[in-house]
Every structure is written in C-alpha cells, then in structure tokens.
Design goal:
The chain contains nine helices and 22 strands. By secondary structure, the protein is of the alpha/beta class. Strands 6-21-22-20-19-16-17-18 form an eight-stranded mixed sheet, with helices on both faces. Helix 1 runs parallel beside helix 8, helix 3 packs across helix 4 and helix 7 (360-368) crosses helix 8. The longest helix has 18 residues, at 97-114. The radius of gyration is 23 Å and the shape is globular.
Length: 437
C-alpha cells in the first residue's frame, strides 16, 4: 500500500466504484488505501456515495448514501419494508430477478475457487424454482418479536426488530397465518409460522416474559423450549405435499422453504443420484444423511433404492418413520458423525447438512466409504466450498454444481453438487502420458 494514499476512517463520506460481489449480498469496491469495502443495497458496476460504518485492518463496510451511476440491473424494490435500517430479511430486491441468479452463480463459483481451491470449477447455473419465484414461496418463517409484541424480522446486523404486517416472500396461506397470529407477543423471543398444504401451526419460542395466551384460530400451537416442542393445541404438525406425496412435518422439524422448492430440489437430487437416464436406482444402497422428515428418502426409494436415513432430531425421525412406513428405508436417529464407522456397502451418498456444513471428519469418512457418487445439497456456498476442499483431498472429484434459487430476493442460494471418485483409469492414462514424454 502506498504511504501517500489518503487514509479513511469510520464516518467518512466517500465515492466508490464497485466491481466485486461478496457472499452475503454486498457489492465490493476499494478504498483509496486499497482495502476492500463492502456496501449493501448496491450492485457491481455502480458508482456510489457511501459512508464508512466499520473499518478493520483488512476490510471496511460502508452504508449506501446515493447511487451516482446505476447498474442497468437495478430495479425498484417491490417491498415497502426493504432498504437500509429496515427489514434485514432480504438483500437483493434492488436487483432484477434474472440478475439475482447471475450474482448467486458468481458467488458459488468464487467460493469454490477461493475457499475450495477448485482450479477450474464446472459451469454453474442457478435456476429459479418453477411457479414460486422470486416471491410467494415461503410456507414457514421464524418471526422475531419487537418490544411492543409486534411480529417482524431483525434489521441487518442488529438485534432490533422491524415490524412486518405482510412479507411478500410468504405464500398466501403463510401470510394469512401471520395475520391471524396478531401482534400480542410481548415477552416472547420468536414465533414460528408454518402453513402446510393441509394444516397450520404456530411454534412459540418463549423469552423471559413468559408465554402470552395464543390467539384463537384454526391453527395448532406448540411451545418450543428445550427438547421436543410441547403441543398446546392440535394440530402439532402440518402436511406438505411434494409432487404427489404427502409428508408430515411436526413442530420443531426442518422442512425446505416450501413445497415448490422441495419438489425442485428432489428432482435435482434424484437425477444426480442416478447413474443412468432415465432415473433408476434399483438395487442400490443410498445413504440419506441429515435426512430430516424423509423428503429425499421418499423419492430415492420410489426410484428403486434401498435407503438408510440418518438424522439427529428425534422429532424429525418420528415424522420420517411415519412418512416412509411403506418404503424400503431404514431410519436411524443419531448424529451423522457418530455412525459413520457403522456404515458400509454404500453405492450413493446424499447429504443435506446444516448451514455450517458436514465438516472435514465427516467428509473423510464419506470418502472412505468409496461411493460411486456423492450428492451434496448445500444451503451455504462457503460451507460447500470448505467441504469440497476436504472431499478433493480424499480423492473425490467435483463433477457438477447446479444452483437453485429457493430463496428469491435474498442472498441465500441452494446448490446440488455431485462428486465422483477419481477413476483409476484416468490416473493410469495420466501416468502413461507423463512417462511417454
């Protein structure tokens, strides 16, 4: 860094030319002294005025003040709650929806290169979810509670709650449930809403102020404190229809953003798991790790596989046993890391780990199973990149990555990555070529 460059400080108003895009949904420019500066609500290709809000040794963050030269992809946000110091649930409403897909593909590629050390990633395309994009897709949400009891979402980088009457990401049924839930929740930390294809459910996360009486209405109520949720009013579960299958999802169990997203992910995962087209998994043993209520197991088994589902949540595995009762699926309630030594004779591995990823120990154990293919469902590009690095180190190769925008208007993206073992034939051919030179 040149010593004659002007130095900036928190509070300074600066002009920035933005050319980068960061995981998390911020455009990136350079301060005069050369360090990266992240700006929310801006886009690559823009010139902006921004005020530095935070400055560290290697990077800074600034708040957008004015767009001087706008990107051709900038649009007016469709939501009245969107913008600086307002609801932090969305990060990309100022970008045209097709450009949101391009930005998410860019993040996936850059994370795989920078963190995963993948020199030449496969081509990455992020597709929208048919019929539920970029809004009206969320069948469930966890809403924070403002001091006056109003439901809302937290502001970006803050614990403060911005009250929300209507979230355009929600399905019509979920929006109706939010309306019926009201705003009398003072003293509660969070209220979870879930609107199924059949049934509606509120899950209350109590704070220090006790639990107020739930409003009357045609929905179940559960109390989520420690352990399994206590059902205060039936139903304690909803039904989610994915394709032509009804799945039970109880209070406290995880499910994808909505049935449309779940169906689109199922299609990608089952196709990636099959070695042939048309899809046929007959006679194959498939592991479904972090398998939840049995979403992927249902359709893997229907494609002919013998499936072992592993999931740590007792509530989710209780749902899975109900959902999978008529299929060739063994359900195991355990942490994935605790049972890796007990698994063997596996043809295909499907895993959908939490946002933090599977971790290097699980990745090493998975590679040691020598599956014919491994299908990794990721909700965080950085976690996917970290686990990709671990799998590559254990002799797997990244064959494909397909993005799916199940979280339109946000910086989040789902990805389905397929890994294959490095073939002995390929290694032999490479060695022979080197010896002949």
């Amino acid at each position: 860094m040149s010593t004659d460059q002007p130095r900036t400080a928190a509070g300074d108003l600066i002009t920035l030319s933005l050319d980068g895009w960061a995981h998390g949904g911020e455009a990136v420019g350079r301060l005069p002294e050369g360090m990266a500066c992240f700006v929310a609500h801006a886009l690559p290709g823009e010139t902006v005025t921004a005020r530095i809000s935070e400055k560290k040794k290697r990077w800074a963050r600034a708040e957008l003040v004015e767009v001087l030269e706008a990107s051709p992809h900038r649009v007016d946000p469709p939501c009245p709650y969107y913008g600086p110091d307002r609801c932090g649930g969305c990060q990309l409403q100022h970008a045209a929806p097709p450009h949101q897909l391009e930005l998410k593909a860019r993040v996936l590629r850059e994370q795989l290169i920078r963190i995963g050390r993948v020199e030449d990633p496969p081509a990455i395309v992020v597709d929208p979810v048919p019929d539920a994009w970029p809004q009206g897709y969320r069948a469930w949400a966890r809403m924070a509670v403002a001091p006056d009891g109003a439901l809302g979402f937290r502001r970006a980088g803050s614990h403060d709650v911005h009250p929300i009457d209507h979230c355009l990401l929600m399905t019509d049924d979920a929006a109706a449930l939010r309306n019926d839930a009201g705003d009398g929740w003072s003293g509660v930390d969070e209220v979870g809403l879930m609107a199924g294809t059949d049934g509606r459910l509120l899950t209350i996360h109590p704070g220090t102020g006790g639990v107020p009486a739930a409003p009357e209405g045609s929905f179940g109520v559960a109390l989520q404190a420690t352990g399994a949720p206590a059902v205060l009013r039936e139903p304690g579960a909803v039904t989610m229809r994915v394709h032509d299958v009804d799945l039970r999802v109880s209070a406290g169990a995880f499910f994808q953003a909505g049935p449309a997203a779940a169906a689109a992910l199922v299609d990608l995962v089952v196709a990636a798991a099959s070695p042939a087209d048309p899809i046929d998994l007959t006679g194959m043993h498939v592991l479904d790790l972090y398998g939840g209520v049995g979403l992927f197991s249902t359709f893997l088994a229907r494609a002919g596989a013998r499936v072992t589902l592993v999931e740590s949540s007792e509530q989710a595995t209780a749902d899975a046993r109900d959902n999978l009762a008529d299929l060739d699926v063994t359900v195991v309630t355990a942490d994935v890391a605790d049972v890796m030594d007990e698994l063997a004779d596996v043809d295909v591995v499907v895993l959908d780990p939490p946002r933090s990823g599977a971790g290097p120990d699980v990745c090493r154990a998975l590679a040691a199973l020598h599956p014919d293919r491994l299908v990794y469902v990721a909700c965080d590009p950085a976690a996917l990149a970290r686990d990709t690095k671990a799998l590559l180190a254990e002799g797997m190769q990244l064959a494909s990555v397909r993005g799916l925008d199940v979280f339109g208007h946000t910086a989040h993206v789902e990805a389905v990555a397929t890994f294959l073992p490095v073939s002995v034939a390929a290694i032999d051919d490479s060695t022979a070529g080197a010896e002949g030179q």
